[in-house]
Recover the amino acids of this structure.
């Protein structure tokens, strides 16, 4: 995320590091996480680690299992993934259609900045950075809606979909897909923007 860590609380900084570890597959589905190990790793007490666990559990990346402690969440199964994809598409289509007539120049400037970051990540073949900026782009769209509860519905679905990001044969396709969304928005073509957004979510 664009916010500097200096403005984050300790739990937020720890959560950001662990989130990146999960999304980059350094931490794999089912891997256990222990408060004491992470408090030593980050040089903090167990309280901030516990709060980071709470945040990441809400985001769908960690699960708390009775008698097993905290573990990295499993990827959606082959049977469940189409449902997860359709849920995310439904939320994002609803948001984009709802806000389309209210999109401002400031919104477009923000999305252009993120799109530039996506392009740089693709050009460097940096999948970790691409994952981060991809999420930023869609999060910025969701957070443009007045109903902030939509973000709470969307976030765990999007996070689980982004675990082990590897669907693209050509990494630059991600840039081109997001560019297509933004081009349609700039052109005021709601139908094309919604279609491009739907195609991007797979």
């Amino acid at each position: 995320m664009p916010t500097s860590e200096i403005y984050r609380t300790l739990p937020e900084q720890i959560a950001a590091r662990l989130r990146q570890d999960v999304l980059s597959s350094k931490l794999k589905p089912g891997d256990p996480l222990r408060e004491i190990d992470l408090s030593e790793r980050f040089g903090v007490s167990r309280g901030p680690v516990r709060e980071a666990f709470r945040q990441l559990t809400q985001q769908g990346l960690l699960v708390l299992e009775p008698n097993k402690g905290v573990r990295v969440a499993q990827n959606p199964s082959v049977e469940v993934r189409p449902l997860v994809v359709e849920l995310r598409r439904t939320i994002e289509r609803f948001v984009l259609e709802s806000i389309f007539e209210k999109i401002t120049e400031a919104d477009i400037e923000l999305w252009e900045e993120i799109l530039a970051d996506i392009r740089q990540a693709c050009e460097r073949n940096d999948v970790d950075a691409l994952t981060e900026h991809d999420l930023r782009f869609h999060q910025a769209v969701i957070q443009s809606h007045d109903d902030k509860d939509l973000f709470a519905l969307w976030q765990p679905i999007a996070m689980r979909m982004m675990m082990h990001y590897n669907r693209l044969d050509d990494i630059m396709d991600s840039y081109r897909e997001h560019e297509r969304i933004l081009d349609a928005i700039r052109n005021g073509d709601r139908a094309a923007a919604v279609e491009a957004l739907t195609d991007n979510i797979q």
Observations:
- The chain is about 65% helix and 5% strand.
- The chain has two domains: 5-72, 81-200.
- The beta strands are 32-33, 62-65, 69-72.
- The mean pLDDT is 91.
